[in-house]
């Protein structure tokens, strides 16, 4: 869709590429690291500065008391960290439960590592799930479950009650829990981000995966990480070394500086800024009859496009691009069933003038 948008000269609200400026301390520290000659390989699991900054961040937030020497693996983005965790902890043919709508890279990562995704539906508008459906998904080959909170594409922020249900389920069936928490700072409407790995009894079976791509608007830097018990971190780090060698060294220094120098005000500002972007886009979608499923977190919104011409969500997305010049992602990328053909996903991680331009174009649908 990004390629088609460029071809047609539209406004790109499709790919999750954050176009906002990165914070000055992050950019300065990366430049300074380059100037100091810190351009060679880092330790395979990340620079000491970044691992220590991550440990301090989680400790300040009261989530984990981490050993930066043995429980943190910095890798090539959150996607890279998940890939290495799957290589380390899954065998070919192992089944992994994935909640639907799912982020397509999660499904692709499982397939690439020869694991088998097994899907459990969540239902709009709050994307709730059925424990009966979850239990029905378990077989003797089930090895893990993936939880994405806040979620891409739905924007669901998992509640403590829901995470406790998943925790009990994982414990009963002796499963790993792989999380994707890359949007942990993008939380709206008094929601709370909870790490399932911080719940009682969950540390030893949870691989908490996140990154700084979204938080600091550095998606091209590929700075992600996994935190977990040292037994699993060693194996994950070995595969990260094998596949990526290390994340870019000077950029790790930039990310570490952001964690150290940017205080709580920055993260509060981030949520406030993106909440306003969400309101602007969702209000326009609602006004033109593309009812949005208003997200609780992250920076995407699924919208109902059943009124738009086309038999598939790809046809509907192309209609929007060709008619009003706004690119989105077809909903079929996030669902195994036909319900995906009635939805598309918009990304609102854009400068305000880009959001305003997209809204003016969408208004032509009235």
Structural class: alpha/beta
CATH architecture annotation of the largest domain: 3-Layer(aba) Sandwich
CATH topology value of the largest domain: Aspartate Aminotransferase, domain 2
Beta-strand fraction estimate: 15-25%
Verbal overview:
Helix 2 runs antiparallel to helix 9, helix 3 (48-60) packs parallel to helix 9 and helix 4 (77-89) runs parallel beside helix 5. The longest helix is centred in the C-terminal third of the chain and has 24 residues, at 264-287. The protein is globular, with a radius of gyration of 20 Å. With 366 residues, it is an alpha/beta fold. Strands 2-9-8-7-6-3-4-5 form an 8-stranded mixed beta sheet. The protein has 12 helices and 14 strands. The model has no long low-confidence stretch (mean pLDDT 96). It has 2 domains: 2-21 and 265-365, Alpha-Beta Complex (Aspartate Aminotransferase, domain 1); 24-261, Type I PLP-dependent aspartate aminotransferase-like (Major domain) (Aspartate Aminotransferase, domain 2, 3-Layer(aba) Sandwich), CATH 3.40.640.
Question: Short description, anyone?
Answer:
The protein is an alpha/beta fold.
Strand and helix layout:
Blueprint: H1 2-8, E1 11-12, H2 24-35, H3 48-60, E2 72-76, H4 77-89, E3 95-100, H5 104-112, E4 116-123, E5 128-129, H6 131-136, E6 142-148, H7 160-172, E7 176-180, E8 206-211, E9 223-227, H8 230-244, H9 249-261, H10 264-287, E10 292-293, E11 300-304, H11 313-324, E12 326-327, E13 329-330, E14 343-347, H12 352-362
Parallel strand pairs: 1-12, 3-4, 3-6, 6-7, 7-8
Antiparallel strand pairs: 2-9, 4-5, 8-9, 10-11, 11-14, 13-14
């Amino acid at each position: 869709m990004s390629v088609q948008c460029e071809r047609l000269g539209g406004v790109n609200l499709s790919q999750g590429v954050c176009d906002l400026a990165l914070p000055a301390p992050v950019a300065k520290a990366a430049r300074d690291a380059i100037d100091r000659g810190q351009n060679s390989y880092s330790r395979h699991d990340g620079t000491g500065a970044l691992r220590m900054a991550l440990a301090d961040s989680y400790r300040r937030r009261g989530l984990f008391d981490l050993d930066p020497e043995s429980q943190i693996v910095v890798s090539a983005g959150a996607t890279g960290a998940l890939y290495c965790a799957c290589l380390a902890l899954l065998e070919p043919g192992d089944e992994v439960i994935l909640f639907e709508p799912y982020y397509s890279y999660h499904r692709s990562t499982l397939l690439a590592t020869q694991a088998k995704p097994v899907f459990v539906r969540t239902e709009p508008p709050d994307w709730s799930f059925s424990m009966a459906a979850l239990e029905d998904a378990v077989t003797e080959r089930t090895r893990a479950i993936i939880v994405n909170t806040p979620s891409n594409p739905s924007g669901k922020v998992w509640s403590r009650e829901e995470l406790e249900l998943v925790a009990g389920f994982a414990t009963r069936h002796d499963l790993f829990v792989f999380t994707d928490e890359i949007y942990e700072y993008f939380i709206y409407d008094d929601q709370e981000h909870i790490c399932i790995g911080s719940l009682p009894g969950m540390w030893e079976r949870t691989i908490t995966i996140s990154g700084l791509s979204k938080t600091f608007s550095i998606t091209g830097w590929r700075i992600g990480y996994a935190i977990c018990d040292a037994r699993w971190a060693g194996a994950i780090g070995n595969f990260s070394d094998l596949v990526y060698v290390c994340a870019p060294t000077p950029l790790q220094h930039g990310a570490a500086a952001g964690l150290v120098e940017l205080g709580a005000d920055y993260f509060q500002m981030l949520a406030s800024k993106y909440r306003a972007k969400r309101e602007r886009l969702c209000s326009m979608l609602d006004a033109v009859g593309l009812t949005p499923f208003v997200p609780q977190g992250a920076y995407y919104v699924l919208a109902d496009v059943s009124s738009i011409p086309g038999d598939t969500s790809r046809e509907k997305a192309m209609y929007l691009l060709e008619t009003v010049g706004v690119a989105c992602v077809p909903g079929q990328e996030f669902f195994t069933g036909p319900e995906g053909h009635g939805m598309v996903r918009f990304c609102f991680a854009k400068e305000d003038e880009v959001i305003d331009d997209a809204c003016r174009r969408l208004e032509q649908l009235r």
